[in-house]
Write a structure and sequence with these properties.
By secondary structure, the chain is an alpha+beta fold. Helix content is 25%, strand content 37%. This is Oxygen tolerance.
Length: 594
């Protein structure tokens, strides 16, 4: 039993020592001042703060100051559900005796048998103000304790180099703000800008001109300068609601505060934008600045005539992706190429734009053979090396396996001429131009009061209402988006139908032109791409838009005839029937589609 008692006594002694050691490590004792720079006729507040109660508190010698208040003692005890929080503060109010730089020496206190000391603090005293400011005056509080700051990441960027702008509101611990609202948002003239949204405002601790402050980040933006020279970043303005202390107290002894509204504005900042160097600038440079990868790909390398493939020009990486044009695709004249579809997958954060952009071209070959797509060059300015980089794509060859042979009427003609004869001058081609004229004078006729005189005088006046009427009708026509789309589709259909009509009797050319007319009509009316021209897709879209099933079936039958006619004998009568049926079906769809 005695051995057990000794073991228990040793365990209790070790545990008590460990707890005391842990408590000693967690002790905090520090000194804080209200400001580190003050006028001779201002007051300085000094707080000695500890997180555990102690004994034998010894203040430093305030020999360079007059103690006008204190020590005031405040104690705070709280429990957050996990641990107990204790704070004790001794406060002194001091008046400087003279100008100069003075040091507030260390204070000491004994906590759990251990003596703790604060760090010395240096303050600067300047000459007295002519009229001391009231510390409770709202204007004084704003001037001394609240600061709206504009932070710019770089003040001398290149053209199209990203910079960040951050607006922060700094508030001294003793100042109180209950609310604020923006009254004037900054305008970034001369920049492409993107605001970076935060999920919520977070109060953080920081320093402003060496003093301890709390701050919150109000707004962040990424800017890409679009012109050189000096550009102004306009400030942010806030209307803030201040909690201003008064000399009155409530029934519980707490100080009563009033609310006051004041306007605070950040300082205006400027940046000087440098032009991109002319040395080494490629001829095909379109303004890309950053670090990029360039790629040109096709969905197919081999296909049959009238089938489609997609050629994609893509740039990916980090830089001003939304602010430059991609290089254009050049192809032989024997490949039918439609306008590109532009796609962007770009995200913007404080580092700038990142992602990829692309142009996708739909290509439909018309003849059998191998057709090369020339290499495409892309250039950009690299900010890291501050040099231009030029990238060239690889050669691409489109191999058309089946289809009509190009220029079969005269196989000896070169491909580049598109089968057209060269111009041959005829010696008599200018014979119809007269080289001699006769002039007859009419001396008795007068211009005044003649029909030409009145027409010249009144014609412009009469033309004004006609011009206004024409302009109003033109604006109404341009505003009719659906009508313009319909008219465009009708023009395309009539264009290819006219080509098909001219080719009546020539089976291959007729059905190629007829199929083009139907496809382009669908693309214009249904807003779809060539790659979506499948039977199921067409049937579904036309049915959704209110077209009768019989008309949809007629349209599908015409497309099937275009495919089958290339491999089966067709008479002129059948071609005329297919042409008439195509024109009738298009008109019926126009009347029924919604």
């Amino acid at each position: 039993m005695k051995l057990l008692k000794y073991i228990l006594l040793i365990f209790i002694t070790c545990s008590t020592t460990l707890v005391m050691a842990q408590g000693t490590d967690a002790v905090s004792f520090q000194a804080k001042v209200s400001k580190k720079k003050l006028a001779l006729n201002e007051r300085l507040r000094v707080d000695f703060q500890m997180n555990k109660d102690g004994d034998n508190f010894v203040t430093p010698s305030f020999s360079d100051f007059v103690v006008v208040g204190g020590p005031n003692q405040s104690v705070s005890n709280s429990w957050d559900g996990k641990q107990r929080r204790f704070t004790k503060i001794y406060s002194y109010f001091l008046a400087p005796k003279k100008m100069g730089v003075f040091t507030i020496a260390e204070a000491t206190i004994e906590i759990d048998g251990v003596v703790f000391k604060t760090n010395p603090i240096t303050v600067k005293v300047t000459k007295a103000q002519e009229k001391p400011d009231d510390p409770n005056d709202p204007d004084y509080i704003v001037q001394e304790n609240i600061h709206l700051v504009t932070e710019v990441s770089k003040t001398n960027p290149y053209l199209n180099e990203p910079i960040t702008v951050v607006y922060k509101l700094y508030v001294a611990p003793k100042a109180g703000i209950s609310n604020y609202r923006e009254i004037e948002s900054p305008k970034f003239n001369g920049f492409w800008s993107q605001n970076i949204e935060d999920r919520g405002l977070k109060i953080q601790n920081g320093t402003y001109k060496g003093e301890e402050y709390r701050y919150v980040t109000l707004r962040k933006a990424v800017l890409y300068p679009q012109k050189t020279g000096e550009l102004i970043i306009e400030p942010l303005s806030l209307d803030i609601t201040l909690e201003v202390p008064t000399n009155r107290r409530d029934i519980y002894g707490r100080q009563i505060k009033n609310q006051a509204h004041r306007t605070i504005t950040a300082s205006t900042r400027s940046v000087t934008v440098k032009a991109l160097p002319e040395e080494g600038k490629p001829a095909n440079f379109t303004g890309a600045v950053g670090d990029f990868k360039f790629n040109v790909t096709t969905t197919k390398s081999s296909l049959n005539a009238t089938e489609s493939l997609q050629a994609k020009i893509e740039v990916s990486g980090k830089g001003n992706l939304k602010l430059f044009q991609l290089p254009k695709l050049t192809t032989p004249s024997t490949l039918e190429v439609y306008d590109p579809e532009h796609a962007e997958n770009v995200r913007t954060n404080l580092a700038g734009m990142q992602g990829q952009i692309s142009d996708s071209y739909t290509i439909i070959p018309q003849y059998k053979g191998k057709f090369p797509i020339p290499p495409i060059r892309f250039s950009y300015f690299d900010l890291k090396t501050q040099k231009y980089v030029e990238v060239t794509s690889q050669d691409i060859v489109v191999n058309v396996l089946e289809g009509p042979i190009y220029a079969e009427a005269d196989n000896n003609l070169p491909l580049a001429t598109n089968g057209k004869d060269s111009n041959v001058l005829n010696q008599k081609q200018f014979a119809s131009i007269k080289t001699q004229t006769s002039f007859v004078s009419k001396e008795n006729e007068t211009f005044l009061n003649s029909p030409i005189f009145w027409t010249s005088l009144l014609g412009p006046l009469l033309a004004i209402p006609l011009a206004l009427f024409y302009r109003r009708k033109r604006d109404e026509r341009q505003a009719d988006v659906s009508g313009n789309r319909k008219r465009k589709a009708d023009r395309l259909a009539k264009k290819y139908l006219s080509e098909a009509k001219k080719a009546l009797g020539q089976k291959e050319s007729f059905y190629i032109a007829l199929e083009k007319a139907l496809h382009n009509y669908l693309k214009g009316r249904l807003s779809i791409t060539t790659s979506d021209l499948s039977k199921d897709k067409i049937t579904g879209l036309l049915t959704q838009r209110g077209v009768d099933t019989a008309v949809v079936l007629d349209f599908e039958a015409i497309l099937e005839n275009c495919d089958l006619a290339r491999y089966t004998p067709i008479t002129d009568v059948t071609m005329q029937q297919d042409y008439d049926k195509a024109a009738t079906t298009i008109n019926q769809i126009d009347k029924q589609i919604k």
